[in-house]
């Protein structure tokens, strides 16, 4: 706590908390994390139970509405989301403006932001019905937009949504269908993908969610706010970590090379970090990593494939968890450590990993944004700073400098 009177000659106190390590920016009834115990609850339900027994659509409903749906409510919600899966045909021209080797996250930032130019009719944020429609539009269209980003970068034709399929099955078909008519969804892969979506659905006030809230606090429309969230998620310390984790595991290659990388991660003069390890809030095993590890085995079995990188990952985890450095700093595998191995087995290139994270997190962003806008006490987010520049001085004409 800093006495700003000493700094500014003003009255009042403010907290100086770089990185917001101990500052709550809002209250929220969506997601609870106990980082010391490794607990994650959505509206009170443990993530392990949701991943095991629920579906992504059910979790979306839960996050948006506060309760699990009954059968009729879930069917109705599915119908609503399905009705909005198409994007305006003109949106496809946006893709053509990007270089074909563009990173799909760059494409996502642009195309999702562009939605506000297509759906003016749902940008009246003061009206709860408009907020609901734009929320449904975002959740429904994001798989279509993500699959189109993939198709564009691999040079294949876009595949239109198949509304007879599940949310996740449809996404898989739009992504991997070549030709689309012949694509058959493998139930175990559909289930694994759906589970990955559940595991990424929300995670309270992480950097991208805080970005969405901050952008939304000015009254910006939800499509613009989501684009801001996607941009923030792209960073390697956040959503980009799953791409970085798999790249790191492939670079390590074989278990005998692990000690060298462990030593590098401990060396303060080396910027290298174990990607997929450590978390701002979890000082225990990330409960999502436990489910991810189990899902790797299920996907390998269903696809009858294996990847030596999984063995390297498990050995790395074992060595790190027994190393005094990682024990003392409470660094455990996070959600990103194993997810890349599954996504790679399913056939996604590493550049798509963060896109999948953005797809799944859209519901969390939307639910958090709705929660904030519905709060009658909501204010524009406006952090203060600790000024360290020069004190007041007089302007010097250029000839005298
Ligand atoms: N490898 C080696 N050392 C690490 C690692 C790591 N992965 N993570 C943290 N540390 C060390 C830091 O060097 C620091 O040491 P010090 O106290 O001696 O300076 C200490 O542990 C604390 O780390 P901070 O960076 O201060 O912790 P913070 O809470 O700010 O960072 C973060 C959390 C960004 C996730 C960090 O652990 C990291 O960079 N991990 C790798 C990237 C990653 O996996 N990100 C995904 C996060 S989960 C998500 O976004 C879904």
TrEMBL record:
<dbReference type="InterPro" id="IPR002020">
    <property type="entry name" value="Citrate_synthase"/>
</dbReference>
<dbReference type="GO" id="GO:0036440">
    <property type="term" value="F:citrate synthase activity"/>
</dbReference>
<protein>
    <recommendedName>
        <fullName>Citrate synthase</fullName>
    </recommendedName>
</protein>
<dbReference type="InterPro" id="IPR010953">
    <property type="entry name" value="Citrate_synthase_typ-I"/>
</dbReference>
<keyword id="KW-0808">Transferase</keyword>
<comment type="pathway">
    <text>Carbohydrate metabolism; tricarboxylic acid cycle; isocitrate from oxaloacetate: step 1/2.</text>
</comment>
<keyword id="KW-1133">Transmembrane helix</keyword>
<comment type="similarity">
    <text>Belongs to the citrate synthase family.</text>
</comment>
<dbReference type="GO" id="GO:0005737">
    <property type="term" value="C:cytoplasm"/>
</dbReference>
<dbReference type="InterPro" id="IPR019810">
    <property type="entry name" value="Citrate_synthase_AS"/>
</dbReference>
<dbReference type="Pfam" id="PF00285">
    <property type="entry name" value="Citrate_synt"/>
</dbReference>
<dbReference type="InterPro" id="IPR024176">
    <property type="entry name" value="Citrate_synthase_bac-typ"/>
</dbReference>
<keyword id="KW-0812">Transmembrane</keyword>
<dbReference type="InterPro" id="IPR036969">
    <property type="entry name" value="Citrate_synthase_sf"/>
</dbReference>
<feature type="active site">
    <location>
        <position position="279"/>
    </location>
</feature>
<keyword id="KW-0472">Membrane</keyword>
<dbReference type="InterPro" id="IPR016142">
    <property type="entry name" value="Citrate_synth-like_lrg_a-sub"/>
</dbReference>
<dbReference type="InterPro" id="IPR016143">
    <property type="entry name" value="Citrate_synth-like_sm_a-sub"/>
</dbReference>
<dbReference type="GO" id="GO:0006099">
    <property type="term" value="P:tricarboxylic acid cycle"/>
</dbReference>
<keyword id="KW-0816">Tricarboxylic acid cycle</keyword>
<feature type="transmembrane region" description="Helical">
    <location>
        <begin position="337"/>
        <end position="360"/>
    </location>
</feature>
<feature type="active site">
    <location>
        <position position="336"/>
    </location>
</feature>
């Amino acid at each position: 706590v800093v006495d700003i009177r000493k700094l500014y000659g003003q009255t009042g106190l403010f907290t100086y908390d770089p990185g917001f390590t101990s500052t709550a920016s809002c209250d929220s009834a969506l997601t609870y994390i106990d980082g010391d115990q490794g607990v994650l609850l959505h509206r009170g339900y443990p993530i392990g139970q949701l991943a095991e027994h629920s579906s992504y659509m059910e979790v979306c409903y839960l996050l948006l509405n506060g309760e699990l749906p009954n059968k009729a409510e879930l069917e109705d919600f599915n119908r609503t989301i399905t009705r909005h899966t198409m994007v305006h045909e003109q949106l496809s021209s946006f893709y053509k403006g990007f270089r074909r080797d563009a990173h799909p996250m760059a494409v996502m930032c642009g195309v999702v932001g562009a939605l506000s130019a297509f759906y003016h009719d749902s940008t009246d944020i003061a009206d709860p019905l408009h907020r609901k429609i734009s929320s449904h539009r975002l959740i429904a269209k994001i798989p279509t937009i993500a699959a189109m980003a993939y198709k564009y970068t691999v040079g294949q034709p876009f595949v239109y949504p198949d509304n007879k399929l599940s949310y996740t099955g449809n996404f898989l078909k739009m992504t991997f269908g070549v030709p689309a008519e012949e694509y058959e969804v493998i139930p175990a892969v559909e289930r694994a993908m759906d589970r990955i979506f559940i595991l990424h659905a929300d995670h309270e006030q992480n950097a991208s969610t805080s970005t969405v809230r901050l952008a939304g606090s000015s009254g910006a429309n939800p499509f613009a706010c989501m684009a801001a969230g996607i941009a923030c998620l792209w960073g390697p310390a956040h959503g980009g970590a799953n791409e970085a984790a798999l790249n790191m595991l492939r670079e390590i290659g074989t278990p005998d090379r692990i000690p060298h990388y462990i030593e590098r991660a401990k060396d303060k003069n080396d910027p290298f970090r174990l990607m997929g390890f450590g978390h701002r809030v979890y000082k225990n095993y990330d409960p999502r990593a436990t489910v991810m590890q189990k899902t790797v085995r299920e996907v390998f079995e269903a696809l009858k494939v294996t990847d030596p990188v999984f063995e390297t990952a498990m050995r790395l985890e074992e060595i790190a968890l027994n190393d005094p450095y990682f024990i003392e700093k409470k660094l455990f595998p996070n959600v990103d450590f194993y997810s890349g191995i599954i996504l790679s087995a399913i056939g996604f290139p590493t550049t798509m990993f963060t896109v999948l994270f953005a797809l799944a997190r859209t519901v969390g962003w939307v639910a958090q944004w709705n929660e904030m806008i519905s709060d009658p006490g909501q204010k524009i987010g406006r952090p203060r700073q600790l000024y360290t520049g020069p004190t007041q001085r007089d302007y010097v004409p250029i000839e005298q400098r």
